Amino acid sequence: MAEPYVRLENIVKRFGPFTALNGVNLDVHSGEVHALLGDNGAGKSTLIKVMSGVHAPSEGTIYVEGKPTVFNSPRDATVAGIGTVYQDLAINPLMSVTRNFFMGRELYKGPRGLGIMKMGEMNEIAHDEMLKIGIDISDPTQAVGTMSGGQRQTLAIARAIHFGAKVLILDEPTSALGQKQQMGVLKTIKKVRKRGDIAVIFITHNEIHSQLVADRYTFLALGQVIGAGKKDELEHNEIRRLMAGGAEMRDLEQELADI
Amino acid sequence: MSDRNESDRLQQESTFQRLIRRPEAGSFAVMVVVLVLIAFASNGNAMNALGIKNNLSIISQFGIIATGAALLMIAGEFDLSIGSMIGFAGMSMAMMLKWGLPFGLGEATPFSAFFITLAMTLSLGWLIGTIVVRSGLSSFIVSLGFLFGLRGVTEVTFRLINQSTQISGLQDFKETSFFARLFGGESFGWFYDLAFALGFNLNRRGEQWVTGLDARVVWWMLVVLIAYIILSRTQIGNWIYATGDNKESARANGVPVNRVKVGLFMTTALCATIFAACQVFDTNTADAAKGNLKELEAIAIAVVGGILMTGGFGSVIGVAFGAVTFGLVANAVFYIPWIDGSFYRVFVGAVLLAAVFANERIRKRITGGI
Ligand SMILES: Nc1ncnc2c1ncn2[C@@H]1O[C@H](COP(=O)(O)OP(=O)(O)OP(=O)(O)O)[C@@H](O)[C@H]1O
Ligand SMILES: [Mg+2]
């Protein structure tokens, strides 16, 4: 088996007395879609924040292409090829589409910082990249606050892909979208997977979505991995059971019936 | 099914519609109204040769500090130390010019006095900014501490070295030093010469009346121009907006949020120092009370100029319009004899409230609240 692009080993993350992650292992392979599943509060978002340099792990090691790596900032993670689409999308509502798209990575002429931004070129790229994954925004100078949830999602994904992510982390990318746009995002994930050089980490609460696109699964509950494996190694019922945080679906159904 | 796409849903706007939606639109309208009202009420006296000079003098003072305050507010922070920084910088320069450089380093020149002072004020700006970003405390409180602290330091230093909290009758450095003329001298002399040549700008005896504007007008224009270019055209400008809009997402995208903030606290200190230098070299005096309340006027002007209190939105040009408005009203009492000078504050209060409501509407419209 090829070397995973990113490997997390025994990651522990504490917030004060609260242990959000308790020794998590995760392998991320290029060309694969890795579904990260688990109940609300299981620690999925925390795990990917560790992976993308937002939180430093309390314990454990991150390997990028086999080398132990420390991310001191999100920039470090971006440089290492980890592109993140956060649940809150990391988008600024008062700023224009283009200014959001290039936030922190503006194209400019001249010295860093004081360089003049190439607005025309940036407008064009932002428009084209979003068109490629299915949304034709009318005006790249429009404020993002005025756009729909799906359009914002597209912006965030297009941005991560454009900036050369080797690992594309999508935190619940479909949760706020209508049916058609959900399928659009899944199509995008498939398209990205087909390139073969990008790994996708896909967080979702939707079992059907995960089955449509995922190659590999990791299930979290209360900050720990309770199950992991490739798609063909896992039974459908097993997936459902693990998604419910390890509880038997039948038990839950029974509980519901009892009320 | 038609081949209608997303672009068809946005109505083409006329140029006029685009203009009135710009962030400067409101403050421009207020400025025009005030300009016209004051011109009429003063029988044109506010806009004659001397009126323009005097108005632009105070407009530039307001404009210089309000621009710095506005950039900082767009990045989501306040600086209440601007007024005390003006007092401190003025004291520092005047003191060196009167009593010589510190540590017995000899006589001060306007050049050395200015740059030594600037080094101190920039360091203070850096310190305020660093405390704010490191502690995560509200800049309101941190800079409030400096509002009191710096004013106190200024007074104490004055009394210790100078016995009095005022310095007056400094030598007129404008006569001898080009550098002093840069701050305290005149500008746009050619404009007034031209007006005279064309038969305007005459005094009662038919001679040329006013010789030029204050040098600070040029400083104001420079500050506005540079701030405008930085905010709307450069990479740092994008970082400033991003920092004020949502600093977590800005940080997640690699914007150096802390450095942006610290840099902007240093910028307000720079503006305060320019303000003070113009004052010292123009009047050859300094006073521990100089700059009192200026930080609040700067914030008020920024808000009237369309800057959101919550950050992330606003324009330098709007703030320039705000400075013109405030300057005109502050001076109105000199041209309109029947008006009580305190109406200036009534006006500031009313316009400020109106502006805050208008800005909030804009914010809601953009973020989808309306
Ligand atoms: N900065 C923080 N400080 C303290 N506790 C935190 C912090 N971030 C997350 N937590 C806690 O860690 C736990 C895991 O949160 P996390 O956001 O990772 O869950 P999640 O699996 O993404 O849930 P969801 O499916 O609802 O998005 C939660 O109990 C949360 O309250
Ligand atoms: Mg989450």
From TrEMBL, chain A:
Tree of life domain: Bacteria
Residues of the ABC transporter domain: 6-247
Pfam families linked: ABC_tran (PF00005)
UniProt protein name: Monosaccharide ABC transporter ATP-binding protein (CUT2 family)
SUPFAM superfamilies (alphabetical): P-loop containing nucleoside triphosphate hydrolases
PANTHER family, alphabetized: CARBOHYDRATE TRANSPORT ATP-BINDING PROTEIN MG119-RELATED (PTHR43790), SUGAR ABC TRANSPORTER ATP-BINDING PROTEIN (PTHR43790:SF8)
Alphabetically ordered keywords of this record: ATP-binding, Nucleotide-binding
Molecular functions per Gene Ontology: ATP binding; ATP hydrolysis activity
Organism: Litoreibacter meonggei
From TrEMBL, chain B:
Domain of life where this protein originates: Bacteria
Keywords recorded for this protein, A-Z: Cell inner membrane, Cell membrane, Membrane, Sugar transport, Transmembrane, Transmembrane helix, Transport
Compartment(s): Cell membrane
Coiled coil regions, renumbered to chain: none
InterPro entries linked: ABC_transp_permease (IPR001851)
CDD domains the record matches: TM_PBP1_transp_AraH_like
A GO CC term attached to the entry: plasma membrane
Transmembrane portions of the chain: 25-44, 56-75, 82-101, 113-133, 140-158, 178-198, 218-242, 262-281, 301-330, 342-358
General function of this protein: Part of the binding-protein-dependent transport system for D-xylose. Probably responsible for the translocation of the substrate across the membrane.
Name of the featured protein: Xylose transport system permease protein XylH
Organism for this UniProt entry: Litoreibacter meonggei
